[in-house]
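Consider the following assembly input.
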Amino acid sequence: MLPSLLICLALTLASVVVGVYAERKLSGFIQDRMGPTEVGPYGLLQLGADLIKLLQKEDIIPYLADRKLFLIAPGLIFTAVFLGYAVIPLGPDWIGSATSLGVFWLMAIVSLDVIGILMAGWASNNKYSLLGAMRSVAQIVSYEVPLGLVVLCVAMLNQSLDLQEISFGQGIYTPHPVYFFGIKSWGLDVTAAGGFLSWNIFRMPLFFVAFIIYFIASLAECNRAPFDLPEAESELVGGFHTEYSGFRWALVFLSEYAMMLLVSMLGVVLFLGSWNTPLPNIGPVRLADWTSGAPGTILGGITGLAWLLIKSAVLVFVQMWVRWTYPRLRVDQLMYLGWKVLTPAALLLVFLTGIWRLWMV
Amino acid sequence: MQNQILYVWYLLTAVTILAALLVVLAKNPIHSVLSLVVTFFCLSAHYVLLNAQFLAVVNIIVYAGAIMVLFLFVIMFLNLREYTEETKSNFAKLGAAVVGGVTLVAIIAALKKVQYPMPMRYDVRTGFVETLGEVLFRDYLLPFELVTVLFFVAMVGAVMLGKREKGERHF
């Protein structure tokens, strides 16, 4: 348990370091400027400089703030997000907790960061913080509905809530036969081919829509643009963390990036083949066998972790790309999209997945 | 191993009782609600110790997650520090005492029926989703469906309340 914990912690910290640098360079590229260039080669040490600055800053607590809650809140937010990593399989034989409830636990525990956000916003005793917290919570609670429904679709098709079991079903080591597009009557058995052909998104063609709903909802869950109303700089200064400084502000920032990585990893595990390789076996060219080690071997662990991280990094990249491309939504547009577009679509998908499960599998 | 679980149990129980006391004793309603969240969380941990994982997660997602967030939301909207404790009327105090007393009697009556030590009927699968699904969708299908009707009615009611009235502008 302890090694998994430390590895996950290291992973989150590393993801923040890489993420912040990548985000700044990427936004620079998209906006046709250079990004950080001064500190170190290509500005690589910029983040180190920023971190040192943040850590030695004074931890300011507003005079009229609710002192205890103000101090606890950032830790609570980070803990809630970090506990989600417990059930993410990092490889074929590597998972923090092998509970059979995996994804259900993840949804439950991550939804608790709402309490931390409300605490932070309210304890600051600042109207901008409170407004930011209100917006943030309303948004997260609303988008949890389509997110949960889409996750339910995947759980229904795989007949499991265990993320490791869902992972095994999407590659060459699956215990069940896999058919092309999941249609048994065509008789195209692709179990041995593996690769992207056995990913959930390919095994059940409707899951392409489900994945898009998942991605949009996960952006809203992370409070990322175009759903970044909770921290809209032009109207709310900085959202629920306006009053925070120094280390506690860094913790809030850390949770945001940890959340980005977590939802990307969950998306990869649910739809994009988890730790399985994307390359299929084509006749004698056994790409899938060459690029993934068998479960139980060291090579299997390494390739599994590598594929999972590569795929998650691509999703994180898309999140950043979206952030620097689209303008922010208005509050009513946000609620309209969540409740009147995504939720009915997700409900329909649950229904269709049920029919698919009954008739096609 | 047994001893470790016992220590965990003692610690959890202590925290649970402490948090539950704080719910009643805290002056600030927000602190009270947050203590209630901690209490629910500890109860979930107790469920895990009793091998009821599903129940534990449901408890977190429904009570600590959804209902308590709603509570916090409402309380934070209602009072922004200008709240002064108003004294309750004697009638309200009497009502509270009667309700509390009746609940206490009911709990004591229920506890008297408990066999101690518990009979050992240990089954790993008790808390699993599959077991719960079988019980819920086969043995108790009718009550389950009736509850869904209840939920449906509540949803229709919420939609009716939130519906735009004639001539009312939307944003």
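The two ends of chain B are 60 Å apart (CA to CA). Ask yourself how this observation constrains the way the partners meet.
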